[in-house]
Specification:
By secondary structure, the protein is of the alpha/beta class. The strands form two sheets. The protein has a six-stranded mixed beta sheet with strand order 4-1-5-8-6-7, sandwiched between helices. The protein has a two-stranded antiparallel sheet with strand order 2-3. Helix 7 links the parallel strand 6 and strand 7. Helix 1 packs parallel to helix 3 and helix 5 packs across helix 10. The chain is globular. The relative contact order is 0.13. Zinc ion binds next to loops.
């Protein structure tokens, strides 16, 4: 296996932030799932104890049972967190553990207060309903869905080579400079960054967690590195936003690229990627009225071949076509693109 090229400092920091976010999300799910399970267990045991013991012992019995169960749950969660850590530094581990413990403790306190105050006046079943609804409504990112958006290119291309897939001897430039607007002169990297930032806000408003490979023009990120960011974030979908160029000024329209199935590289993501690409094309054409140029299965794209998560690359229009270049520069048309992509992504993720 060919190892990916050495990452620069900026990329390492971006990836570390991705990892930290991903790990926090995992811990939160673990803790919340564990808490809910522990509460149910504790209340079932408390109910049994209630039936066995006399009324005078009720409050004490519930408190003891809940406390014991939550205590064992908290320690189980802590050890799970350590075991699941793979690749983060020591600092990340301790920070995560602190968070988990704090969350467990604060949840335990809430449960204790609710249970003991209500135990004397109400039944265990009523308390159970109340506590569980509180826990679930306070859960962040209830769906836990993650989309990584990669605005294509960057301020300056990098013609240094990198393998087009893991272990490949075939190489391509790390990142090209892209096309530019024939009328506006806008570089592709600038246009797709603007659209990507709007898409980020649109998806975030729907409760999707969005991670960007870049939020500025001045980065040095190869296509391998971008795919690795999506992999490390555990993205439910990796969306690479690009615009097209042609030597024929009359060429116009939208098409959506997705990875062809290549054994060992993309065979595990080809079908899901095609599904996402189909939805993206459908919704983009519906939202913009642009010419439908169809889907393209590609086997030559580094950012696809290194991806372990479903990935699509919408080419949102031809910047070499005067009309489309002018349209793409307007907020109104960019909003249509964002609306179409948002609908497609939500449909792919099964949201709404
Ligand atoms: Zn491009």
């Amino acid at each position: 296996m060919t190892r990916p090229p050495t990452r620069d400092q900026e990329t390492r920091e971006l990836i570390q932030r991705f990892r930290a976010k991903r790990d926090r999300r995992r811990k939160q799910r673990l803790v919340l799932g564990g808490t809910a399970a522990a509460i149910v267990l504790a209340l079932v045991v408390a109910a049994v104890v209630l039936l066995v013991r006399g009324p005078a012992d009720r409050a004490g019995a519930i408190s003891t049972t809940v406390q014991t169960s939550l205590g064992s749950m908290a320690s189980a969660t802590s050890s799970t967190s350590v075991g699941s850590e793979n690749g983060g530094g020591a600092t990340t581990v301790s920070a995560t553990l602190t968070t988990s413990t704090t969350m467990s403790e604060s949840t335990a306190t809430t449960v204790m207060a609710t249970t003991t105050s209500r135990a004397t006046t109400t039944s265990g079943a009523t308390t159970s309903t109340s506590v569980l609804s509180t826990t679930s409504t306070s859960a962040p990112h209830a769906g836990g869905l993650v989309v990584v958006i990669d605005p294509g290119h960057q301020a300056k291309g990098d013609s240094t080579l990198e393998p087009i897939g893991p272990g490949s001897t075939e190489k391509k430039a790390k990142v090209s400079s892209g096309t530019s607007g024939v009328i506006t002169g806008t570089p592709e990297s600038e246009l797709v960054l603007a659209v990507s930032l709007k898409l980020r806000d649109s998806l975030a408003a729907q409760g999707i967690e969005v991670l960007m490979t870049r939020t500025t023009q001045d980065v040095t990120l190869s296509n391998v590195q971008r795919a690795q960011m999506a992999n490390e974030a555990g993205a439910d979908l990796f969306v690479r936003i690009h615009a097209d160029g042609s030597t024929d000024a009359g060429t116009r329209g939208i098409h959506v690229l997705y990875p062809a199935s290549i054994a060992g590289w993309t065979d595990d993501i080809a079908a899901s990627s095609k599904k996402a690409a189909t939805l993206a094309l459908q919704e983009l054409i519906a939202a913009t009225g642009a010419k439908d140029r169809g889907l393209d299965a590609r086997s030559d794209m580094t950012g696809f071949n290194w991806s372990d998560v479903p990935v699509i690359l919408p080419e949102i229009g031809f910047m070499t076509n005067p009309d489309e270049d002018r349209s793409l520069a307007t907020a109104a048309y960019q909003d249509k693109i964002v609306k179409g992509l948002t609908r497609a992504i939500l449909r792919f993720l099964g949201v709404g």
